[in-house]
Design brief:
Radius of gyration: 18 Å
Strand order of the largest sheet: 1-2-4-3-7-8-9-14-13-12
Shape: globular
Order of helices and strands: HEEEHHEEEHEHEEEEHEEEH
Number of domains: 1
Distance between the termini: 34 Å
CATH topology: Rossmann fold
Largest sheet: 10 strands, mixed
CATH architecture: 3-Layer(aba) Sandwich
Number of helices: 7
CATH superfamily: Alpha/Beta hydrolase fold, catalytic domain
Number of strands: 14
């Protein structure tokens, strides 16, 4: 979530840790998508797409051609944030136009504290035990866009920050048939390995600051029964799930954090995993939960996604 939400989100997590309510991923019934399609959104503009009582924003790039399938990127905001803030934080609308991808930005459910959340894992962030199945809803977001626009099914991606990062990884676990690659920024995998049984390999990029004060880089908890693994454990889990047999390789460092001099981000990558997938960890030395991006950071993250479509 953007920096303007940091203090609010941190305070919310403190209250939540005390509450320690029931797990956030209980059984729910999936909502059915709306049968009435929204009016087509013109190329080079944004609009709202109907989906029952949870419409979502869609940006159609200037160069969109109904005869040429385009990539689809789904952007997921963090807890206490919203879709507009996530889009601005990563510069997604401009990148969609520049790179030629469709951009879907849905909203989480508003909880009793007035904050939007995704029901991603026990750790984050359905702290009031709302009966909502976001995994099914986001799958319907993807299939709804696919039914109304020309989408390349091998280039459907999810990127999320914080709670949205948890949810991006959940989508890779639950809907590997729909999603080719995900990026989790400051979010982690479910702690229970049984919660993630993808039907096929998915490329995964974990981006996190080593000084993350909210979702600890080495793992932690948001209260009783709300533990989460660290960044390395999250990546290790996906290396196993994607059958990565080669040792990780350290790549050239990246400059992602504006407040740190030079190229502060360590890159560790396992390539050549099953079905040509890849699993990477970008550890931003000294960065906090909401990194202050360099001007090209959002583009670098999106470029990674677009380079990791599903192999033919």
């Amino acid at each position: 979530m953007p920096r303007t939400s940091t203090l609010r989100r941190a305070a919310a997590l403190t209250v939540i840790a005390v509450l320690a309510l029931a797990a956030c991923s209980g059984p729910t019934s999936a909502a059915q998508p709306s049968t009435a399609p929204s009016p087509a959104i013109a190329a080079g503009s944004s609009g709202s797409v109907a989906l029952d009582d949870r419409p979502f924003a869609l940006t159609v790039p200037t160069g969109y051609d109904a005869d040429t399938p385009a990539p689809l990127v789904v952007g997921l905001h963090g807890y206490t944030s919203n879709g507009s803030e996530l889009s601005s934080y990563l510069g997604l609308p401009g990148l969609a136009d520049d790179k030629g991808f469709l951009l879907a930005v849905p909203e989480g459910t508003t909880d009793a504290g007035g904050d939007e959340f995704w029901n991603a894992t026990n750790a984050c962030c359905n702290f009031y035990s709302v009966n909502v199945d976001d995994s099914a809803y986001l799958a319907q977001v993807i299939t709804t866009v696919e039914s109304q626009y020309a989408v390349d099914p091998d280039r459907v991606f999810v990127v999320g920050h914080s709670n949205g990062g948890f949810m991006a990884l959940r989508m890779a676990c639950d809907h590997a048939d729909l999603v080719a690659a995900v990026v989790s920024i400051s979010g982690e995998q479910a702690q229970d390995p049984a919660a993630c049984q993808p039907s096929q390999p998915v490329s995964v990029l974990q981006v996190q600051g080593t000084a993350d004060e909210s979702i600890t880089f080495t793992g932690g908890s948001n209260g009783s029964g709300r533990g989460y693994p660290g960044a390395q454990a999250t990546v290790d889990a996906w290396r196993t799930l994607d059958d990565c047999t080669a040792a990780p390789v350290t790549g050239a460092p990246l400059d992602l954090e504006q407040t740190r001099p030079g190229a502060e981000t360590t890159v560790s990558t396992s390539s050549g995993c099953a079905d040509s997938t890849e699993v990477s960890l970008w550890a931003i030395d000294g960065a906090r939960h909401v990194p202050t991006w360099t001007p090209d950071a959002g583009r670098t993250i999106i470029d990674w996604l677009l380079a990791h479509g599903r192999a033919a």
